[in-house]
Amino acid sequence: MLRGLSHAGLGNLQSDEQLIELASRYGFQAVDIDAGGLIARHGLEQARAQLEEKGIVIGSIGLPVEWRTTEEEFRSSLKHLAPAAEAAAALGCTSCCTYVLPSTDQNAAHFMALATRRLRLCAQILGAYGIRLGLEFVGPHHLRTNWANPFIWTLAETLDWIDTIGESNVGLLFDSFHWYTNEHSIADIEALRPEQIVHVHINDAPAVPVAEVLDNGRLYPGEGVIDLAGFLAALNRIGYKGAVTQEILAAEAPQGSPEELVQRSKAGFDKVYAAAGI
Amino acid sequence: MLRGLSHAGLGNLQSDEQLIELASRYGFQAVDIDAGGLIARHGLEQARAQLEEKGIVIGSIGLPVEWRTTEEEFRSSLKHLAPAAEAAAALGCTSCCTYVLPSTDQNAAHFMALATRRLRLCAQILGAYGIRLGLEFVGPHHLRTNWANPFIWTLAETLDWIDTIGESNVGLLFDSFHWYTNEHSIADIEALRPEQIVHVHINDAPAVPVAEVLDNGRLYPGEGVIDLAGFLAALNRIGYKGAVTQEILAAEAPQGSPEELVQRSKAGFDKVYAAAGI
Amino acid sequence: MLRGLSHAGLGNLQSDEQLIELASRYGFQAVDIDAGGLIARHGLEQARAQLEEKGIVIGSIGLPVEWRTTEEEFRSSLKHLAPAAEAAAALGCTSCCTYVLPSTDQNAAHFMALATRRLRLCAQILGAYGIRLGLEFVGPHHLRTNWANPFIWTLAETLDWIDTIGESNVGLLFDSFHWYTNEHSIADIEALRPEQIVHVHINDAPAVPVAEVLDNGRLYPGEGVIDLAGFLAALNRIGYKGAVTQEILAAEAPQGSPEELVQRSKAGFDKVYAAAGI
Amino acid sequence: MLRGLSHAGLGNLQSDEQLIELASRYGFQAVDIDAGGLIARHGLEQARAQLEEKGIVIGSIGLPVEWRTTEEEFRSSLKHLAPAAEAAAALGCTSCCTYVLPSTDQNAAHFMALATRRLRLCAQILGAYGIRLGLEFVGPHHLRTNWANPFIWTLAETLDWIDTIGESNVGLLFDSFHWYTNEHSIADIEALRPEQIVHVHINDAPAVPVAEVLDNGRLYPGEGVIDLAGFLAALNRIGYKGAVTQEILAAEAPQGSPEELVQRSKAGFDKVYAAAGI
């Protein structure tokens, strides 16, 4: 499993280049960045060289398609997907992710039909470039009622949905934070085949009742109460070998320079990886 | 467009054979029956001959798969589909239909995902036999709250769902009763392409506020307030050429012998077809 | 059915704008042009206005994806499809076409697998914009052995392939020239449902043995031996309502100015439409 | 990886029950048998108990659908698939396999289109029962010209085809005999992800030029020249954990009782597994 960083939780990072540099300096192997931007700024060869020199791979790109709102916005944004996928593939990235909110102001069944059609098409396009689509179920309880109608949020529902989408390159973005807030178990992880997991996020949660955990109240790995050692050990046991990327969404920006925050992240990763015995 | 009859609304019919006989005698051209049963009782050649002699085609068969409940029941019933489709195809029937309830006790989004996957598979199997799958949206308002969570019930939502199912042999079972209770318009029909319609039901409704119309309070064509002349004329205008089948679901059995009820149905069809100018 | 023109056979046309102008002046209703280019040159509103003012619609755009060669070229060209489809849709065009050569230097079965996957993805992307994909089977006999291995060229094979591609927005580009060189019949047309036809080409052929007809030896409608009256009447009978577009591929450029050649085309259309009684 | 036996190569086996008994006695863990037949003879509970008691799982069932000939035969046999899949699933079997001949008397491209559609539907039905479809590429050179037109036979072509079929539950039946006769390499195995392999066959080949190896000239594992140690070690290295089943197709029945032949098979498995270090 590759240790990964994203911008979230690292303060005022200036650029993807800085993230690559810091990730490399502190023993991380993956970053979640915009592959197309890196190529646009440096050219393909230089972008590749930069990643190789630093020993960094791109863990995942974000899905550049608006699939949650109107058909017009979906269509209009869809044209960004093939270029983004081409760029990611050119840099060796094989993962593209999006999150699934647990409630919606739309009719839930109708929205599920629309979302299924739209995400299937995204997966089909990504598949042409050898890229997989990861769907992130979202666990914090307050989001289940944040919009008018409940959508889906559990692992089992998400796996059913992936089945319905019906493309072989669709899987999970599996985030320890949502696993925890959904009160899923180690056994739930062990029941997965590794190819069902496209990407992993790792975050910790504060010691409050699980129903009160806030989506933007995430902690650095090892600084909270989630059994991240168990989480990582189970992922390792089933054979997952991809990136495990930190994404610290927080209401208040953390104190410290990006370098200090990467050091803090490294300490957290060291702690939970050691506890997991990997 | 073919005038069609189903068992519903014809009292104590003894058999599909009696329905075929009465339909033929009173100028109908289609019946909705169980194709496999007819073949089982008479053999394929005799079944074919009986239909041909009477000038009757099978308008549609019902979907013999339980797609609304558990995965176990779905799997267990799925094996009935290929034989049913084979029988229907052998008798020249190219339509298989099922209805979609407008609310559900399941999580609506999750059920939509499950239903999409199950009905897609049904469509795929039917497609191997040249048979189309018709989905019937259901309009009566009381059913929208009959179960805990709203599902879908409008024409537009159903068309979106058909798009999501993504098989070219899926379309609408279009029932005048649901068109009326949804307060859809003539223009809504005119916006359809004929190949989007797999089968048509024709029923009338009593003169009560539309929100109070009951699903099992259907009237014979021409005996109620639905603009069936406009409905039929619009279907004819867009080029629909399939069966238009009566399905009188009523809380109380209608008075009269099956033959009298077929005569009453014929009078209704004569009236609304004449009013439609077809 | 709309009378349509393409650049092929009209000599030294200066631009799509000139084609629109001439088509309009001589009673045509459709042109096959590059929708994206028109918008790029005039802006969307002006492009729309120009078409409306001239009473011209875009019959079809060409598929801007290289699906016949390597995976690299396919991927690299795929990103052009969404923008092209968005442009076409913005101008009201619902058709995008490509031709299928009847032989290949690749292993035919393997190429069929690759082509199926690639064209399915093209259809899926086009479908998001409400655009259909038309596949043109190609009849001239000399092309069947022009490359090492036979591929497919008949109507029946192409319909089977469309079934395999399995997207509801895929159909035929039906060209009278290939219908003739394949020695297909009027009954073959009558067996089609109109929605199976995405676009129609009309061309005539010289009075040589059918096996000797050359793909680039096409004549203006009415100047050759193809039963174009029967062809058009049959299309009309089954309910086809789209464009019928001339595409005169010829080894030598025809004599005359574009305007003279459009006049000649008009005379040909007048003749065969009259003979068809439409 | 589970040691598996099929009927092929074990002489006059009386029944699947005898195969289960002998497999168990000599340290095998899997058999390829007809799950539905076992249930029909014993009932589901007894069938399950018999397998459990003997420590045997069903490695794979054969595909009971005729996908290689006419549409009529395909349709007619399709109805056997759901019951077969239901039976297999009830006994815990998750694999169903079929072989792909490397040449065909049909037009190769057209047959590829038909086969793609048919096998996709088979995969879709199997998927409803949690069963995967394994496609076996066939390597012996003489079969490439045994029928008029070349089809596909390499690993790479088969993987492309699986991609085209486009269902996530389709993968390879990977047979050492075809790997060898195709002159594929250890690196070709190492390039596979384990989930791409549905089932494995193990057979050996005589010391004749590879182009002269006959499909029905197979030897027991360890009695020929194939690098089965390398084959098994590579499969183990990539994480394949399913059955490795012997299928000795031979022109002449082997000498000896079934029990003696199972003993001979065991000796072969012991030898090659030991050489593979597993």
UniProtKB/TrEMBL annotation, chains A, B, C, D:
InterPro entries: IolE/XylAMocC-like, Xyl_isomerase-like_sf, Xyl_isomerase-like_TIM-brl. Pfam families: AP_endonuc_2. Residues 20-260 form the Xylose isomerase-like TIM barrel domain. Keywords: Isomerase. One of its GO terms (molecular function) is isomerase activity. This is Sugar phosphate isomerase. It comes from Paenibacillus radicis.
